[in-house]
């Protein structure tokens, strides 16, 4: 019986190409494909894949958050990240989310199939250079809540909207944004978002 795979990728052409490539492998079958993060857990619960290959930058729930939810609700499905964002902070967030592999999109196609097989066997698969960069990089100075607020701000949400989503007051949200700017040594909120994105923290 082949390895059952769920693929989450929002770019239709990329997703179609990956599905076609993976289905050429004798021992791999793509049983579900989704285009946004909100679909990952429901689809996984419906078709119980062995491995979920998830892009980070998805509409709706981002790939890392979805991977963390998947690990809680369907721990037997092993999550792996396929991304163009090879940043140390992003890699650290993936490890915290329980992700078993971190594969860059510019890797050869055969490398993805091999990574899926290794993850299914219980191994971890990480790009060695990325692992070393994560080892050498500094820790995220922001708290979880500051990171969450800054991530929503990065998506263009204003303080009042962020406050509604997180059940906080607008003043508290502004305080979190101010503390993020100070901690990151940024000039303003936009600069804080840029710094945090380049580090892979949001």
Contiguous low-pLDDT stretches (5 residues minimum) are none
Beta fraction: 5-15%
Helix/strand-derived class? alpha/beta
Give the oligomeric state: single chain
How many helix segments?
10
Which sheet architecture does the biggest sheet show? 6 strands, parallel
| Total number of strands | 6
* Overall morphology: elongated
Overall mean pLDDT: 86
As a whole number of angstroms, the C-alpha radius of gyration is 18 Å
Order of helices and strands: EHEHEHEHEHEHHHHH
Please bin the fraction of helical residues: 40-55%
| Neighbour order of strands in the largest sheet | 2-1-3-4-5-6
* Distance separating the two termini: 38 Å
Describe the protein's architecture and organization.
The chain is an alpha/beta fold and 202 residues long. It has ten helices and six strands, in the order βαβαβαβαβαβααααα. The chain has a six-stranded parallel sheet with strand order 2-1-3-4-5-6, sandwiched between helices. Strand 1, helix 1 and strand 2 (28-34) form a beta-alpha-beta unit. Helix 4 (88-96) packs across helix 6 (128-136). The relative contact order is 0.11.
């Amino acid at each position: 019986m082949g390895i059952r795979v769920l693929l989450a990728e929002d770019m239709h052409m990329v997703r179609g190409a990956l599905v076609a490539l993976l289905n050429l492998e004798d021992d791999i079958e793509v049983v579900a494909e989704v285009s946004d993060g909100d679909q990952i857990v429901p689809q996984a619960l419906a078709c119980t894949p062995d491995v979920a290959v998830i892009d980070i930058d998805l509409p709706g729930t981002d790939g890392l958050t979805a991977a963390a939810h998947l690990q809680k609700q369907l721990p037997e499905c092993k999550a792996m990240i396929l991304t163009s964002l090879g940043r140390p902070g992003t890699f650290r967030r993936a490890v915290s989310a329980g992700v078993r592999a971190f594969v860059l999109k510019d890797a050869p196609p055969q490398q993805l199939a091999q990574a899926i097989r290794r993850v299914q066997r219980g191994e971890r698969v990480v790009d060695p250079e990325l692992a070393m960069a994560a080892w050498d990089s500094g820790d995220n100075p922001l708290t979880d809540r500051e990171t969450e607020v800054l991530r929503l701000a990065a998506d263009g949400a204003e303080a009042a909207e962020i406050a509604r989503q997180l059940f906080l007051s607008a003043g508290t949200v502004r305080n979190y944004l101010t503390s993020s700017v100070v901690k990151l040594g940024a000039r303003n909120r936009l600069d804080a978002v840029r710094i945090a994105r380049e580090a892979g923290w949001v």
